[in-house]
Amino acid sequence: MSSEDILSEIRRDYIYRLIRNGERIDGRKFDEYRNIDIELGPIERAEGSARVKIGTTDVLAGVKMQIGEPFPDTPNQGVIITNAELIPLASPTFEPGPPDENAIELARIVDRGIRGSNAIDLDKLCVDPGNEVWIIFIDLHILDHNGNLVDASSLAAIAALLNAKVPNTKFGIDKDDERLAMNDVPITTTSAEIDKNYIFDPCLDEENAANVELTVITTSKGELCGMQKTGIGKIPVDTVPNIIDSSINMGKKLREMLLKVVEGNRI
Amino acid sequence: MSSEDILSEIRRDYIYRLIRNGERIDGRKFDEYRNIDIELGPIERAEGSARVKIGTTDVLAGVKMQIGEPFPDTPNQGVIITNAELIPLASPTFEPGPPDENAIELARIVDRGIRGSNAIDLDKLCVDPGNEVWIIFIDLHILDHNGNLVDASSLAAIAALLNAKVPNTKFGIDKDDERLAMNDVPITTTSAEIDKNYIFDPCLDEENAANVELTVITTSKGELCGMQKTGIGKIPVDTVPNIIDSSINMGKKLREMLLKVVEGNRI
Amino acid sequence: MSSEDILSEIRRDYIYRLIRNGERIDGRKFDEYRNIDIELGPIERAEGSARVKIGTTDVLAGVKMQIGEPFPDTPNQGVIITNAELIPLASPTFEPGPPDENAIELARIVDRGIRGSNAIDLDKLCVDPGNEVWIIFIDLHILDHNGNLVDASSLAAIAALLNAKVPNTKFGIDKDDERLAMNDVPITTTSAEIDKNYIFDPCLDEENAANVELTVITTSKGELCGMQKTGIGKIPVDTVPNIIDSSINMGKKLREMLLKVVEGNRI
Amino acid sequence: MQSKREMKIEEKPERLIVDGVRLDGRKKDEIRPIKIEAGVMNRADGSCYIEWGKNKIIAAVYGPREVHPRHLQETYRAIIRYRYNMASFAVDERRKPGPDRRSIEISKVSREAIEPVLMLEQYPRSSIDVFVEVLQADAGTRAAGITAASVALADAGIPMKNLVSAISVGKVDGEVVLDLDKKEDNFGDADMPVAMIVDSGDVTLLQMDGVLTKDEFMEALELAKKGCKYIYDIQRECLISKYKKVNSD
Amino acid sequence: MQSKREMKIEEKPERLIVDGVRLDGRKKDEIRPIKIEAGVMNRADGSCYIEWGKNKIIAAVYGPREVHPRHLQETYRAIIRYRYNMASFAVDERRKPGPDRRSIEISKVSREAIEPVLMLEQYPRSSIDVFVEVLQADAGTRAAGITAASVALADAGIPMKNLVSAISVGKVDGEVVLDLDKKEDNFGDADMPVAMIVDSGDVTLLQMDGVLTKDEFMEALELAKKGCKYIYDIQRECLISKYKKVNSD
Amino acid sequence: MQSKREMKIEEKPERLIVDGVRLDGRKKDEIRPIKIEAGVMNRADGSCYIEWGKNKIIAAVYGPREVHPRHLQETYRAIIRYRYNMASFAVDERRKPGPDRRSIEISKVSREAIEPVLMLEQYPRSSIDVFVEVLQADAGTRAAGITAASVALADAGIPMKNLVSAISVGKVDGEVVLDLDKKEDNFGDADMPVAMIVDSGDVTLLQMDGVLTKDEFMEALELAKKGCKYIYDIQRECLISKYKKVNSD
Fold it and tell me: Which domain holds residue E190?
């Protein structure tokens, strides 16, 4: 065993011992998020942007819009394209190169929540039916990885969308730039299982100690609009309902916090 | 030498000894194919399909059709695109990834026979001259590799074409779906040289023992419409005419067998 | 240290000692180029071509022209695309594969000189304003690498352009093929620093011994139209003006030589 | 070769469930016909062919075998590689060969669904490679793939604590149904693939697309449990009959 | 997803300098506002965030660390890897993620600009990895990136002989100016990024695009020297304040 | 950069052979002018430049040399790598640089055409790399490439049992002819490249495109034998004159 393996095993044991005593490595409660910081509009060149920090996890989301062709089966709707880059700046384990399975899964979960909740009013993004619609690129740039990238990325994406304006003038459309029309504000919450306890917002050390995580995305009405189990562990089926309940509650709190920031910004 | 190398050398010696005695490892005559099984239309989603087993070598061919642009030098003709995937499911030596030189050579030999024999009536595949023609994708999915992929793939491709219907209705063309018009039924036969004897339809152990193979494609009229020498060996020029003769004969037999299956299926 | 490293160190020391005595490994003066050989039009299939040898460094440039779309911000101008291939035939250190950073830098320096000097009259390359313009592909094929690829490639590119004819007839444009209209003949000169001396046209051994090179591109009027420092060394800022002066002079000489060859060829 | 003219779009049927009966005649908790066979391939160490509705899928297993390149090896356990792939002709519109984002995600979650039952410590420094080839797709391919992969792993003699069984549930016309087919998947409201270790009641795959209320989710989860049990019995049956066949040969 | 309709082209302003004053109000030798902070990232060994005009750039350093694959190792020294990358949303028209020819060239010349000050012999067989991420671009990104990378390397404690400072000079409306912004870069006549070791007066990066007479070049070089000196003072200030902060914590 | 307007299509001439004479004036069994020179490149260990009709091709050989990555090494013999490549400007319509399916197949069959004459056991664990660059293409490039590669291998001093000589035969206007040029290749009925070891009468490359009757094939094979003999004499001549030149230098 390398000294690194031994160290990580010691850290893992320590986290398990703490959890058994109802404690976490950074003193949080099991259902407590780290401090969340949301900066709206840091990238003026983008149609919308947001930088979200959850503890030291740091994600920048940019929304760009272009005019392109609709999909043949939805000729009157805009198109969403979500992409995540796990750039090597953010973690010693990220490699340069095209998105790997982790980056792809991350982007697809974020996309799933936005699509499932029908968050963006795609019907309003038609310019010329069957011919020209708005393409919305949501690009996630992970800057610092200290665990729970999914929640930070989802929050950054939805904040960037709430921050976005449709660039009509830039594309010669005879209308003022207007706020992107939204139907919903989906919120993503992730909990990790350690020693049969579920802790929300795992930091990196906790993620490394846990075998399995469950991501639950909820709508403003408290419905589920996306889920993903990640990791090689298993979840006793009887525990799932409890996690769902907690996730719905947690989603409500995070949404309120986000909307407060957005309103504050719009005043 | 690794134990694997020693084993393969022993097997090679054994095959050579057998051949010298006029025998083959599975008891076949030199010009005898393994049992051939042709299933027509296993993939209903495809315009045409066929699964061909030669012994335990197993190839699935699918034909899909789309409407696209013609090549500028043949504005009134359909387009053929042939592709082969040596998926890692089929053999421990196949790697995931884009087609390597073996997959490319395989696809190009299959393509050569179809093109050389003018098997598909490309003039009938024009929808709007100079503008819209049918694109025929012939996709070969190798499922189990026990030697002689070329003959199995070619047979599967031509069987799938004989099974194919032009999907006029699916593309809003005001015509019933109709059988793909064919001019010819080219047949590919491959023989391998072992100790100066040429054996048809080499199984994998025989291919590994042989240095060189010659693939000969013949038309219904008994003309040659494609050839390929493969492998690092050499062929005495004086032996070529005999191989050609045998290949023409063998092609005739295989064609009869194929057409019987096709007719049986059409009734 | 490997024997190869030792050898290269010995060679390096030898070159340094020579330079300190005002000498070079092949007997040249510090501001002397190796013998330059320019062959115009070796590739008849190309619209223009030139093969340039500087000593045994050997570069073939081909110019091809096609009709395509203009860039949106220059709707009435032709488009230049420059590409360099460091094919493994040219050096034991070149690997097959897509252009690496060295090939990309090389192509971009050549491109910079042509663009900066406005060498090609891009306004004359408009076929149908906003819709159809000529695309000029300048492809550099490095055949033998014995140092100073930048100067050889730039010279080959500009010679190939001077050799080029616009293929109007081949594309059905109702005009005779005509010489490509040029505004200028930029010349690229490169010097390498060894022991604080700057030597022009370094051969490969000299390049390996030097830490830094400065490429200076000049117009017919003696203006600068492109520069690039390459290598991990540094250049004392006070020495820069001298290098610039020498480069302008050297550029003048090389341009005269090139134009003489071109005129000789046109007669 | 760019497509010039698009295929006609399939229109959404007015109703997908009429009087509690689905378009293909099934009840809401009814599973499509399944045919499954182990040991169908010659070269692979283990394999399984499954037909599930119009899905036609082969799973094959190679391993434990040496890992290349070596830096992928793990010192104390085998690694699993799982490659879900779709043939170009498996779907209505020909797809470009090779992995896309969807298949890369499916490969990851499927690997994580299978890994909990494998005793990987027994084969340090080696790999177990699972290849799932979708020859024809008809919705629910990842669940069918995991189901087949599980059988193929057993067929290959890889030490397993148990089988993994998988099925998809979803919401169609506002009702929770089991085992969506292609039309229901295209025009439905939610899709939720689930994989379970039936004996222990552990979930090893859980994804959800679309919208479900909490109550609908609870109903769906119950249906998925029943579905997985049904699938598990088919898997066992298949392995027993393979075992019998081998022993009687 | 192909673009159907292009963005409107920005038109060239009639004048970029009016009565010696640039469009954004600066004088010809005036530098845009700069904000710079070291140690901003958590995972990296060293880092620096810089805002320079509307440029927003993060540089981070990892290392010295082990090199993979091993054949890239050098026996007697560390290797440097430098990756200049632009976020998709950093420019007006969304760019495809990943390296393009421009960013590959910039990465190379930036690495060569930084390498002269690093004492690489101290870390044989290892690598020092510099990552520069342009979050928003406003001309002069390579100079800003090198400036930030230099600070990040110091922040990481990599042994350096000195700092490298960089800035761009150019010609606009026929006049030589310092620190071009985006509009000046788009519609100007020449752009010349320069990196220097200010103490020794050594140039470590020198590129030029466009046209300059010899005299203009001399004027530009003088401006660049002054500019680099100014940048150097900001870099030192930043590191001192970081050092003070760490010590007072 | 997508092409907007296609090049005009070359039209098929009414006849390609008139009174037994081909469009370029050759008889049916006549070979185009060939110019061939060994040792033309400086860096390569062996090389050959060939002009054959309007074909202009360089072949170069490096090796025996160490193989990277090491897992490609073979314990008891050298491996050969053969890369047939076409310059972007070698054909009428500019081709994208890099290997396409055609050049990958040609590289494979050319390697297999050359390998029989090489004594690879003498260089275990090493590689012999053959690079063939088509600078201008005029039909028959693979045969010309093999011919040149064979000379370049001899020039590099690689131990060979013999030379390999190659040429293309085919059918044009219903007649069997030797050494098709570009027009004949484009508008002909069949093309059959052949490589042989002339001394032993062994075929090392044999491909055929198009349609030939058995009798036509026999006629073509005879022509190919004659053609290879002719090429072989040119190859020998070239190597002898190279040898003389070296010895007289």
Answer: 25-242
